[in-house]
């Protein structure tokens, strides 16, 4: 019965599409050279620049299908198209963003500009549209000014990675206190909370009672022993979690660095002080050895609270050094401080350069921003990375230069309760803790993000063109609370089993999905995610690119690959979900339309 119906529908469709074959109305709505590139592989020598082209099927009835052999290329006497893009499915009203690989023709300077034309051809070359645009031929080299480094973009590996683990670990992990419930706030802000008797975390009062008025923040350094730390356990956990990158705090606002540097920069670090170890090097070495596929990033706070050399930049708002005992108001030492001429030239920029060149960071995850020399930093680093054939990235918190913002590659909403689709790639960050990045001993296990919430949060974010950077707060001894490990691993099992619908996918330009539906796409398939356990049928509310006759299959869970019955009811795709399929997965249910 079903078989007969789908055959009839598909015959009707074939007739309909044949009779309108020449009337698919495509438009190229934008074409833009990017500073991103891909390895040539077998197609060319070296690397190819990527050009982004957006196509829209502006018609009302005729679909593009794989039978149309839709191909997009770039035409210019200054560029060769090495890798054209193909589009296998585009329903009326839908759009697709494709990447075309190009190289300059002989003698054309990298970074020079001029016209190029994006051309889409289909119906076996019988139909075409074109758009001429102002192109940049090849990859620019960067100059130390905001305009130049602001042209950089998130590389494709980063956009495709989707999920990273953030790690907040430092001297604040010793008190590990941020209060609880509505009074909770970031435990890594302990020092700043402590100086304000009115702070809702009541850190001022807590500290007085627990440690007494004579114990100051820097006394916690002696207890940052990392005595039970095994960096291999961390990188294995990150891999088990299903993440593709990680970003540890290399220096938070307290100014205590976990990496090495010359003594004339600072001695406020884990090498000169307890625990006398280069924690970032040990962690990165473990990652290189045991989980080399993980990209390694570095969180770095541009300002430092209470650093006497930062005071002139603090603007009265971000800590003013030197530090004082909050109970006696007496000035106390800023441990490891070395006199410098200028915070930016002698501390901030040298430290960023060390992370870039000595630690080979892939991601410079700046925090707070403020006065900086980040144009200088980024231009040299981006040029250096290109020479090494690497694509690196930096976020939107790398500050400003003489008041001009360094935009960074991506926005970083933090503990955002709502997010929305943005064509510009972005990254959400939050802790597994309800409101702390650093470990907060007061948080009950039941309040940590569970596997279900991790998965639904991730799927929601990637459907909107974002990445999720999910934070864990290890303890001062280097161990990670078992509740965080358990929940990360449970989510990781799901993420790895559904990897084809997560990693290296793209958002759907028509929207992330209504209600509990979320969508991701690839060149070969459309993925429908449902964020709660489905009932016996699912009516997809959005005009997804489903054609009668398409095969819809389950992705992940114990029924992975099983075909589900699918049909159109009016304009809506309806999936039949028997109990053996709805009980075959957890957290989020994923279905695939293959083109
Ligand atoms: C494609 O074009 C149609 C008609 O111009 C428009 O309504 C629609 O919003 C466009 N789609 C996208 C995803 O931009
Ligand atoms: C394309 O055009 C050629 C002749 O110009 C014709 O023979 C062929 O059938 C057309 N193909 C399609 C798919 O319309
Ligand atoms: C290209 O740039 C020139 C000069 O800025 C401008 O006049 C022209 O309109 C641009 N062309 C396109 C297709 O954007
Ligand atoms: C927050 O702290 C106040 C005291 O400042 C206390 O009265 C209140 O009960 C606390 N609220 C929660 C939810 O813990
Ligand atoms: C350091 O650790 C010792 C031993 O656990 C403890 O008694 C002391 O209160 C801690 N001091 C600080 C400042 O953390
Ligand atoms: C700090 O020492 C290094 C050598 O370790 C030297 O190259 C650099 O110029 C010194 N910086 C300053 C500000 O003196
Ligand atoms: C602490 O001392 C400084 C310097 O004398 C003064 O400006 C400030 O008001 C004092 N703060 C408190 C809370 O007494
Ligand atoms: C996971 O957490 C969410 C949000 O707090 C909650 O609604 C859900 O019941 C939890 N799931 C499990 C299995 O505990
Ligand atoms: C769902 O999660 C539960 C608890 O972790 C597990 O026992 C069960 O095997 C999972 N079911 C599937 C189909 O993955």
Fold and architecture overview:
The protein is an alpha+beta fold and 595 residues long. The protein folds into 3 domains: 139 residues, Immunoglobulins (Immunoglobulin-like), CATH 2.60.40.10; 335 residues, Alpha-Beta Barrel (TIM Barrel), CATH 3.20.20; 78 residues, Golgi alpha-mannosidase II (Immunoglobulin-like). Helices cover 22% and strands 25% of the residues. It contains 13 helices and 25 strands. The strands form 6 sheets. The chain has a 7-stranded parallel sheet with strand order 13-12-11-10-9-17-16. Strand 18 and strand 19 form a beta hairpin. Helix 6 crosses helix 7, helix 6 crosses helix 12 and helix 11 crosses helix 12. One 2-acetamido-2-deoxy-beta-D-glucopyranose binds next to helix 11. This is alpha-L-fucosidase. Alpha-L-fucosidase is responsible for hydrolyzing the alpha-1,6-linked fucose joined to the reducing-end N-acetylglucosamine of the carbohydrate moieties of glycoproteins. Keywords: Glycosidase, Hydrolase, Signal. One of its GO terms (biological process) is glycoside catabolic process.
């Amino acid at each position: 019965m079903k078989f007969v119906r789908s055959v009839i529908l598909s015959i009707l469709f074939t007739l309909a599409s044949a009779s309108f074959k020449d009337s698919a109305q495509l438009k190229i709505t934008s074409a833009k050279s990017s500073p991103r590139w891909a390895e040539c592989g077998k197609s060319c020598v070296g690397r190819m620049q990527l050009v982004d082209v957006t196509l829209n099927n502006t018609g009302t009835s005729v679909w593009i299908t794989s039978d149309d052999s839709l191909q997009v290329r770039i035409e210019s006497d200054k560029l060769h198209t090495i890798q054209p893009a193909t589009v296998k499915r585009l329903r009326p009203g839908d759009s697709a963003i494709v990447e075309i690989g190009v190289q300059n023709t002989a003698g054309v300077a990298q970074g020079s500009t001029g016209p190029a034309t994006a051309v889409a051809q289909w119906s076996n070359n019988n139909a075409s549209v074109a758009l001429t645009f102002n192109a940049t031929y090849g990859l620019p080299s960067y100059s130390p000014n905001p305009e130049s480094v602001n042209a950089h973009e998130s590389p494709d590996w980063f956009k495709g990675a989707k999920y990273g683990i953030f790690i907040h670990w430092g001297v604040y992990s010793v008190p590990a206190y941020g209060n609880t419930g509505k009074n909770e706030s970031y435990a890594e802000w302990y020092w700043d909370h402590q100086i304000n008797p009115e702070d809702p975390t009541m850190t001022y009062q807590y500290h007085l009672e627990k440690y007494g008025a004579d114990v100051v923040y820097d006394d916690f350094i002696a207890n940052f022993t990392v005595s039970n730390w095994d960096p291999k356990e961390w990188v294995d956990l990150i891999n088990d979690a299903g993440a593709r990158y990680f970003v540890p705090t290399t220096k938070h606002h307290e100014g205590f660095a976990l990496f090495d540097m010359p003594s004339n920069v600072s001695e406020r670090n884990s090498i000169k002080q307890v625990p006398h170890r280069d924690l970032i090097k040990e962690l990165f070495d473990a990652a290189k050895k045991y989980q080399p596929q993980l990209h390694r990033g570095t969180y770095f706070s541009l300002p430092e609270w209470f650093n006497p050399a930062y005071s002139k930049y603090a603007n009265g708002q971000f800590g003013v050094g030197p530090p004082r005992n909050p109970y006696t108001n007496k000035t106390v030492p800023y441990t490891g401080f070395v006199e410098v001429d200028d915070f930016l030239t002698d501390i901030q920029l040298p430290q960023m350069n060390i992370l870039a060149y000595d630690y080979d960071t892939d991601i410079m995850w700046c925090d707070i921003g403020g006065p900086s020399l980040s144009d200088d930093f980024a231009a040299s680093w981006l040029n250096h990375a290109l020479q090494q054939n690497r694509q690196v990235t930096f976020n939107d918190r790398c500050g400003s230069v003489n008041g001009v913002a360094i935009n960074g590659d991506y926005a970083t909403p933090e503990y955002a309760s709502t997010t929305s689709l943005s064509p510009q790639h972005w990254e959400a960050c939050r802790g597994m803790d309800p409101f702390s990045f650093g470990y907060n001993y007061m948080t009950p296990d039941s309040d940590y993000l569970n596997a279900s919430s991790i998965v639904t949060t991730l799927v929601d974010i990637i459907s909107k063109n974002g990445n999720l950077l999910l934070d864990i707060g290890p303890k001062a001894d280097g161990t990670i609370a078992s509740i965080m490990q358990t929940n990360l691993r449970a989510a990781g099992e799901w993420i790895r089993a559904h990897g084809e619908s997560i990693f290296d996918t793209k958002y759907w330009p028509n929207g992330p999905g209504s209600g509990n539906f979320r969508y991701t796409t690839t060149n070969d398939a459309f993925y429908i995610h449902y964020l709660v356990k489905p009932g016996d049928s699912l009516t997809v509310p959005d005009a997804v690119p489903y054609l009668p006759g398409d095969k819809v299959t389950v992705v992940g869970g114990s029924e992975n690959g099983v075909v589900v019955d699918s049909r159109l009811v009016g304009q809506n795709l309806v999936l039949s979900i028997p109990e053996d399929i709805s009980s075959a997965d957890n957290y989020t249910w994923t279905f695939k339309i293959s083109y």
